[in-house]
Amino acid sequence: MRIWLSRPHMGGTEQTYVAEAFDTNFVAPLGPQLNAFEQSVSDYLGGGLHCVGLSSGSAALHLALRIAGVDQNSEVWISSMTFAGGIFPVLYQGAKPVFFDLSPDTWTVDCDLLEQALEDANKENRLPRAIVPTDLYGQGVDLDRLETMCKRFEVALVVDSAESLGARHVGGRMCGAGGDAAILSFNGNKIITTSGGGMLVTRSEKIADEARFLATQARDPAPHYQHSTYGYNYRLSNICAAIGLGQMEVLDARVVCRRAICDRYIAALSRPGITFMPEPEGAYSTKWLTAIALDSKVLGVSREDVRLKLMEFQIESRPMWKPMHKQPLFEGAKYHGSGVDERLFEMGLCLPSGSDMSIEQQDEVIGHILDMLGA
Fold it and tell me: Which superfamily, per CATH, for 251-373?
């Protein structure tokens, strides 16, 4: 039986909510299930937030950037180690991405690099329009520091929390509730899923209202179809939102499961040559994926050796994200850093971390890796 990296894990009540949507004929994009899902996420994140259910996390980022005024004359500063969907919306707006390295202490964006770059850019009157840090593999960025520096330089902050719903930043703030806006993803491999979908989260009613307007084809208030600007078909389906309602009921339990899986990997595999993604004191990561770095000089086997061996036994693992500044698409793009992310890509591997993994399946993964290490 194949062991997946991270597959959907239903809780049991999703079909009830979907049936309610069908029974009341709310199978169109909008409806009570979507309203309830948006409210559920707002309540979970602490309340007082405006949540806009969308077709994907990328759609949420696209809207947030457009509303922030990002255009062809803008720079957007962004974590280089991220998923492509977390950068493509910068290109949709015709803007120029500038990439930033990770901190070796947290494996999230290096705030020292960002702050120095902001200082330099401010002196030369070339500040970015927005900064987009990534809560990598479910671990929150240094949100307090990022918000402080962005407020100081009057730069929009859009936090990519696609992988971190259920996590907390250092200090206890919920991931997904920070910045001028944050984006969430409910893709099939995330902590919870709506089969596909995302959400824009903001404390600004104005931003939320504009996001809803743009996401529904930017239709002006009129009895006929009238448009003063262009929009998108980005709203989340009411049926998909019904799945999300059921998933929210098991979110915390799913995070507990993934953290327990990571803890078992740490207990079994910790040794010289294997480094696990560090979790800062006071933070609470979802451990969406357990990310490790394997030093081939110490272990005698590389990340790719381990990945291919696991594949022989139908076990899915995956290299860490290839940094965007190393992608052919972004050849020659500006990059700030010393290559921490490059080295992590070369050595990094994400192990199967789905919340529905059995102990026997995890033992199988651990056993094959230990066999390779001669342990």
Answer: Aspartate Aminotransferase, domain 1 (3.90.1150.10)
Q: Angle at CA 161, nearest 5°, toward 156 and 166?
A: 135
- Residue 374, sorted as left (phi over 0), alpha (psi -120 to 50) or beta, turns out to be left
Instruction: Report the C-alpha dihedral over residues 202, 245, 237, 44, rounded to 10 degrees.
Output: 0
**139: which DSSP letter?**
-
What is the Cβ-side half-sphere exposure of residue 21, based on CA atoms within 13 angstroms? Answer: 27
**CATH of span 14-101+109-248:** 3.40.640.10
Output the pTM of the full model.
Answer: 0.96
Q: How far apart are CA 369 and CA 273, in angstroms?
A: 13
- pLDDT, tens only, 34-83: 999 999 999 999 999 999 999 999 999 999 999 999 999 999 999 999 99
What is the domain partition of the chain in residue ranges?
A: 14-101+109-248, 251-373
Q: What is the spatial distance between Cα 123 and Cα 121, in angstroms, rounded to a whole number?
A: 5
Which regions of 268-324 does DSSP assign to beta strands (E)?
Answer: 274-276, 290-294, 318-319
